[in-house]
Amino acid sequence: MKSIKEVSVESKILKRLQDYPKCVELVNYLFKDAELQEMQDYANNVSIKRLGYNDHGPVHMRQVTANAIKMLNILHEAGIQTSIEAEEIGCFEDSLCAVIIAGLMHDLGMMIGRQGHEQMSVILAKPLIERAVMHIFPDNLHRRTIIKSVAIESIIGHMASRKIHSIEAGIILIADGCDMTKGRARIPLALNTTPKVGDIHKYSAHAIERIGIHRGENKPIRIDIEMSAEVGFFQIEEVLITKIDMSPSKQFVELYAGVTGQEPKCYL
User: Fold this and answer.
1) Which parts of the chain register pLDDT below 70?
2) Which residues is 208 bridged to in the sheet?
3) What is the phi-psi region of residue 16: left when phi exceeds 0, alpha when psi lies from -120 to 50, beta otherwise?
4) Beta-bridge partners for 265
5) Same domain for 166 and 206
6) Measuring CA to CA, which residue among 76, 114, 78, 112 is closest to residue 94?
7) Is residue 4 packed enough to be buried (19+ CB in 10 Å), middle (13-18) or exposed (0-12)?
């Protein structure tokens, strides 16, 4: 059974896609995919209970998807084309379909382990992707090919461990980095109380109170981060900034972060 948080984020995703019927059809299909749900749940089990990491399961993958859709919509409203559009091989809805698939499947590799999980995610996601695009676009090989290719690029590039080239993959990279609020660290902190190497990621994430994604003043996308303690700067400087720096979409983003009650620092 899905959690209240999963259902809440799904509702947010559907609301952001209301003008794109094929995207709505795609997310509804994936939300009902029992195999994908089992894989997301098991990835989270391995991440939290076995490895002691933050949430990498169904809520996280849905939140990354929601973040990516919001960012792409902001770019679209600002008149900025995605790579699929600029290369005249598809439409904006194709770009949305690609990031939806990538967002909902990018961490499936955590079922196997942390090391190289982005490559494992591609292997595990491939049959699900092919099944989904065939369901949505049964008579359009071109759209299936483009969406599948960009989705796979976005999945394999989400750790900033390899160079990516599309705006869509760059958005997934940033959207993933933006899901770092304290909710992701709540369960790991409760289950794993013995200090160990890597705890800084849990404690820094726990300090992040709020992340806002909205239209910027100087660039199309503005990311605002509010934290309860300065340890949260680790999460921003070592995780999010690393991902933004590797993203082809960096040029469209401005970033501000600060402790509650203090003047935020402008990073980008």
Assistant:
1) 182-202
2) 227
3) alpha
4) 257
5) no
6) 76
7) exposed
